[in-house]
Each structure stands twice: as structure tokens, then as C-alpha cells.
Amino acid sequence: MKRVLLKVSYDGAGYHGWQVQPNAITVEGVLNEKLSELTGESIEVIGASRTDAGVHALGNVAVFDTESTIPPERFSYALNTILPEDISVAESFEVPPGFHPRKTDTEKTYEYTILNTKFPVPGRRGYTWHVKVPLDIDKMRSAASVLIGPHDFRGFCSSKTQAESTVRTIYSINVTKHEDEIKIVVCGDGFLYNMVRIIAGTLASAGGLGKVTVTDIEKALRTGDRTLAGLTAPPQGLCLVDIWYPELEEIYPESENCGSDF
Amino acid sequence: MKRVLLKVSYDGAGYHGWQVQPNAITVEGVLNEKLSELTGESIEVIGASRTDAGVHALGNVAVFDTESTIPPERFSYALNTILPEDISVAESFEVPPGFHPRKTDTEKTYEYTILNTKFPVPGRRGYTWHVKVPLDIDKMRSAASVLIGPHDFRGFCSSKTQAESTVRTIYSINVTKHEDEIKIVVCGDGFLYNMVRIIAGTLASAGGLGKVTVTDIEKALRTGDRTLAGLTAPPQGLCLVDIWYPELEEIYPESENCGSDF
Fold first, then answer.
1. ipTM of this model?
2. Which residue range forms the structural domain that includes residue A175?
């Protein structure tokens, strides 16, 4: 029996999110079906991040156990021949039997993209949040700086959050602008339900879309009052870029570390 | 009677190209329909570039004549409320009555995007050409340099080309790589049928996908032998970025000039 890890990319537009649901097509559901087809076993993957409907991924992670003789490194090739075009496996390799992608220390990197133009740009509508008010990048950066570090983020998550603790550490938030696109790259040890989308909405508000101030953000962190932060930005602007496990560094050196010098 | 210019963006995936066709949905057809609806007149636009099925645009150009009382600058706002989500009008303004978008000196900028990864990336498949062989950017740049300047490009166009002359001037070709994406930005005074896609295919071949050499490209330019250049790259990687009319500089100063110091 081997435990195999998959790095999974997908276009979220066609799926009701990651997690298996009755009567809905999900990324996890498709992976289970294709892996079971490939191995002749009844496979149920364990996913690292249960992304929402419409959210994209470059590097979500799933593991599964198999008796198959397919070499772990070959699963990516074998799966990519039978997966639909909007799901792709970028890497596959063996991990220790006890490795659990949600119960292991991690660094996750998300990217949120805002298209800051007067009118929507048709070719970007599925992958960006269109904001027509011109945003002030410097104000967005000031707002972002307040969020860095370990904080109780209960004011920055959906009321549907079921996590036991709402304390998370954000290692870095980079706000950059290239032509009409503003990218918010957030790296941290984990994120609560809707947390990255609320951060994106809060920074957009601070940048000119709304009236959130640095003081409001500090107060939201202190009091946990969700109404002080900004709106929840829409899902299609969000992409789970990378999940990094320090524990796997030896066997997976090419993964990107987001740099937690914090 | 006023002549109004529209700068048109679209996601080419949903259209059978620009030009009106019987029994097929085209960008030009949709614009004619929506402009006629808006003005109560029977409008037929004149387009600058008849992009192929699947090709995208940020700044294609169309003009039309109208007696409407809608101010020319307001057509973009009015159209964007009734156009489908995958077509958008970025700008509209009045131009001189005789202005013809295909019979006026111009500089056109196209961008071709190659996704150079081992496996396709689902979120990018509609907007890139996936090439899994690692490409050598320096070799692509060397190949590109041969194409700069005025040349007879009959070896770099589809046999369906109907142009009277096949001489065109390329002002610049910039090949850049950012992470896994290679962008080829081509600026010139005009392009023959499929010419940018053949240039992209030729540079990819020179970069390692095929065996085209700088000598082959020089010979293709000299002899017009289409078989010496590379394959025609697929449409979804191509985007018409901008069309610039020096004649309109006075009334349209914010348009980008691609810099024809040639």
C-alpha cells in the first residue's frame, strides 16, 4: 500500500467547488471517479483545501492510498489522459503513509486578481473581479500591512466557519499592479472560510471602492467584528497557487516556499 | 450624420470570428444587432480587423454612421448595458466622416501567448497555446529579429490570403517569459491572413518545438516558400491588443503607439 500525493490544477468555473456533494459535479468527485477507473480500486482522496464553487487552483493537494503497480510519478501522466480539460495533475509522488494534507504544518499561497478598468474585459471575466473605481495601490498596501502576523481573524471569515481556533498567521501580502490588473498574493499558515476573499474585499475597500480605513482593520482584528471589514470579493478572482509542506521538503524540493521568515 | 469609432474587446471563444456570416454568431453581427436596437437605425459597422474564430481582442476597431442623438462618447456606456458579457466596448468617440478603419495608415499590435508547461493549466487553456517542450527564449528572439522590417511575407500567410500585396513592415517583436508564460508581442503596419499565428508557430519551432532555423526563416522571406516556416499556432493564444491610427492622434491621444521608429 502506498500513499500518493497529487498537485491538482483546475478551472473552478465548471465545478461546484472541491468537496464531494450529492447531485453536483465537484473536483474531488471527478478525481475519485478517475482514480478508481485507473486503479480498479475504490479510491477516495483526502484534499488539502476545500475551495469554493468558482475558485481556481494551480496547486491544490490531494492524497490517496493504492495497491496499484502504477509508479507514483506516473499517476500525473495517466490521469491527464483521462481527466476533463479543466482539471490537470501537475505532479504526483509518494509520501509517507501517515501524511495528512490538512493535519500537517503548511504554508499556503493564494492569489486574488482585480481587473481595475472602466469596463469589464471579456477575456478576463472568468478569472478576475472587475472593479471600475480606480484603486489606490499605496492605500491597499497600507491596509495589507496591518494584517501581517499572527492574529485572531474571526472578523475576517464567514459565519459558516467551523474551525476550532480562528487564529492564523499571515506571512506576507504582496499587492502589485501590472497594467490594469491588481494582484494580491497572500501567504500564510492557513485560512478560514472566505478569509482570502474578505481580505481582497477589505483591501479594495481601503483602496477606494469603499470606506474601510486602517483603523477599521485594526479594530476588526481586535474585536472580531465582521462588519468593520470589507465585502467578500467574488470567487472567480481567487486562485489557490501553492501549498507547501515543510515536512515534505526532502522528497519534494521543487515546491515553492513562500518565505515564512516571520 | 456622425461617424463613430468603437474600440471593441471580446473573448473569441464564443464567436465564429469577427465577420458577419449567415447562420453563425459573430462579433460584427452582434454589434450590428445591438447598435440597430439602440439607435432604431439599420446599422452595419465597418471593422478594422477580421479576426478568426477563437481569436480574442482587447482593442479591435469598428466605425458606423448614425443620426442618433446619443453623444458619441456615450455609446460605450449604452452598448455595455446590452452587449453579452463576452463583448465590451472600451471607448467610443466621433471620427471624421471619411475615416475608414481598413484604408487608413495604422500600427497594429498583437500578442500571442504560449503556456510552456509539462501539462496544460486548466485556467489558461482558452487563452494560451500549450507547448510542453521547453522553449529556448534566446533562440526565439534570434528567429524574431530576422522578421523585423519591411518584407514580402507571402511565405508567412495562409494560402487563403486575398491581399493585393504581401509586403508588410514589422516594427518590433518582443519575446518575454514570465513564469511559465511566453508572450510574443508583434507590432506592424498590417498583417496577412494567419500571419501572426504563423510567426508564433515559427518562433516556437525555432525555440525547440521543431527544427526551423534562422537560415530557414531568411530563405522563407526570400523565396516565399510557406513550407520553410513553422506551423500555424492555434487561435486561442492570439489577442489583437491595439490598433493605432496616426491620423487620429489629435482626437484620440490616449491610444498606445507601439513605437515605429523603424
1. 0.73
2. 107-240
